[in-house]
Amino acid sequence: MAVKAFAFGTDLWDPSHRFETSWLISPWLLFFFRALFSLYILTAIIIILAWQCVNDVTHCAASRDEFSYFTSLTYWGLGFYFLAASAHTFTYARSGVPLLDRFPRPLQALHSAYYTTVVVYPFVVTIVFWARLYSGHWFPVVFDGWSNVSQHAMNSVFALFELVVPRTNPPPAVHMLWLILVLALYLALAYLTHATKGFYPYDFLDPAKEHGFVAVYVFGIAIGSLIIFGIAWGLIWLRKHVTEVKLGREGKFARQPQGARGNRIGEEDVEMSGPKNR
């Protein structure tokens, strides 16, 4: 598995355009929702940063610390994922050939890994925030309530959309290694933040306060991420089985241009042309 973690594959990349199509809605609608989510997330980030600069007693200090928090990093990642995914979906809806198909194989593989982080990390953020970080009292300032709901609740709604609506395959098991690697890199960033800025992004990472429980939190979040990966994998498999095998809803496609991938317009894609077990 360690070798495969750094291999990009040699098989045909996404022959039926699962990353750009849905079993439920057309490519144009999928593009619309992804673009809308990206616009909302990136706009929310800009508003939050500006609000902190104007209203926080430390002015822009909180905004400058934005990239020290896993919540913020994953929210930025979610926004840019939907931006990239909407671009790929738009080009597919418009021409029948997504921009992603023109990318070199390493970037295609990274997009697949990116998708996996999008359907795992938002749920980690939501669970950790509401179970461990939330004080239990609702925010007295309306803006604080909106910003926290946007980053710690709606993020999981966006992730759930990507689990349910597109035709994506279950992520490969090797992506678990990448999930843990990213968490390890963030852990290093958290302690680098303490070394350079004098604070821990999350109090449960402070060994002076939590002592040995720091390791419990670290390994607990890592194991929890793998559990969420397993749940996400199962939900994607179930969605694919129910919609494609049981209901026969193999997807809503754009028309293929003449000669694309060697197919004529209207021909079934190679992935979808095999025998069906219903």
TrEMBL record:
Q: Where is this region: Disordered?
A: 256-278
Q: Does the entry feature the keyword Transmembrane helix, yes or no?
A: yes
Q: Which Gene Ontology cellular component annotation is one that this UniProt entry carries?
A: membrane
Which branch of life, at top level? Eukaryota
Regions that span the bilayer:
28-51, 72-93, 113-131, 176-194, 214-238
The alphabetical list of record keywords is: Membrane, Transmembrane, Transmembrane helix
The protein's matches in PANTHER family, at most eight in alphabetical order, are given as: MYND-TYPE DOMAIN-CONTAINING PROTEIN (PTHR12242:SF1), OS02G0130600 PROTEIN-RELATED (PTHR12242)
> What is this protein called in UniProt?
FAR-17a/AIG1-like protein
In which organism is this protein found?
Lasiosphaeria ovina
Its taxonomic path starts at: Eukaryota, Fungi, Dikarya, Ascomycota, Pezizomycotina
